[in-house]
Automatic annotation (TrEMBL):
Domain AB hydrolase-1, chain residue ranges per copy: 23-135
SUPFAM superfamilies noted in UniProt: alpha/beta-Hydrolases
Keyword Phosphoprotein among record annotations: no
Organism expressing this protein natively: Baekduia soli
Keyword Transmembrane part of the UniProt annotation: no
Signal peptide: none
Protein name (record): Alpha/beta hydrolase
GO cellular component labels: membrane
GO molecular function annotation: hydrolase activity
Pfam family membership, one: Abhydrolase_1
Keywords: Hydrolase
Superkingdom in the source lineage: Bacteria
Length: 288
């Protein structure tokens, strides 16, 4: 398990595989680099050099008690780019990982050639989902109650409560669907770190700063995404943007696991020459 010690002293676990243009893949909160390796890395690594890593507090990276804001996460990414000697890779991010990618494009435009943002939420746009009737809360509560966990009325928009309750659910998407979760990583994040508060801080990526991003951005959301308002805002305000809506699925937010073939096709089509063949999710020669 290769690890790099960043300037902060935190050790970050990472993997690099494949040949071709450099692409860094950034997972979301409570995930890890396996999100990419389950389906997308095998589909893409024959023609792209893919760099995946565990965010601080996730996977096999260190878990400091604080430092989970976009400012902190982007600083980690810049340090990792330096350590891997990557000048201007493309960055593919999912959920909070997409937030980190957009943050980097805003604050370090010389370090990223293109951003593919899958289901970005962005703290600066929290107002569009802060209402108790936000569809994202509804989806989450329905999932919990469908599994037999009754959510009290006063907890239906309580992030910490919903995350804690989710620990008891089996995995809901991807090839590991139905298997029990390992509760320790999420409990550690909820009870021993400031992540539940930090991830909501806007930091340097304000609404004004979003409109100043000049890096080409591909937006990839599901048609009935709980973050559709975020998609609409970014599509209207990013100067160089290509919006993509994926077909609706049961959960919607987890395209890399729910629709890996389609996500891989779009990633490949935006990062490789236009005459590249259509992708099929099979193990490439770069995967054992």
């Amino acid at each position: 398990m290769p690890k790099t010690v960043l300037r902060s002293g935190i050790r970050i676990h990472h993997q690099s595989v494949g040949e071709g243009p450099d692409v860094v893949m950034v997972h979301g909160i409570t995930g890890n680099l396996a999100v990419w390796h389950l389906r997308l890395v095998p589909a893409l690594c024959d023609e792209l050099r893919l760099h995946t890593y565990d965010l601080r507090g996730h996977g096999h990276s260190d878990t400091p008690p604080d430092g989970y804001t976009l400012d902190d996460m982007a600083a980690d990414l810049v340090d990792l780019l330096d350590a891997l000697e990557l000048e201007r890779p493309a960055i593919v991010g999912h959920s909070y990982g997409a937030d980190i990618a957009l943050y980097l494009a805003a604050t370090h435009p010389g370090r990223v050639s293109k951003v593919i943002a899958i289901e970005s939420a962005l703290p600066a746009l929290e107002a569009v989902r802060s209402d108790e009737d936000w569809v994202g809360w509804t989806y989450w509560v329905q999932a919990l109650e469908g599994a037999g966990h009754v959510v009290p009325a006063d907890r239906r928009s309580d992030l910490r409560y919903l995350m804690r309750a989710t620990i008891d659910l089996p995995k809901q998407w991807g090839p590991l669907r139905g298997l029990p979760r390992n509760p320790k990583p999420m409990l550690r994040l909820l009870e021993e770190t400031t992540l539940p508060e930090d991830y909501r801080r806007v930091g340097s990526l304000s609404l004004e700063r979003i409109a100043e991003i000049r890096t080409p951005v591909v937006l990839m959301y599901q048609e009935r995404s709980a973050f559709r308002d975020t998609f609409d805002y970014l599509r209207a305000h990013l100067p160089d943007v290509e919006p993509i809506l994926l077909p609706a699925t049961r959960w919607g937010h987890f395209g890399p696991l729910e629709q890996p073939e389609l996500v891989a096709q779009h990633v490949r089509g935006r990062l490789l020459p236009a005459d590249a063949d259509a992708v099929e999710v099979v193990n490439g020669s770069c995967v054992d």
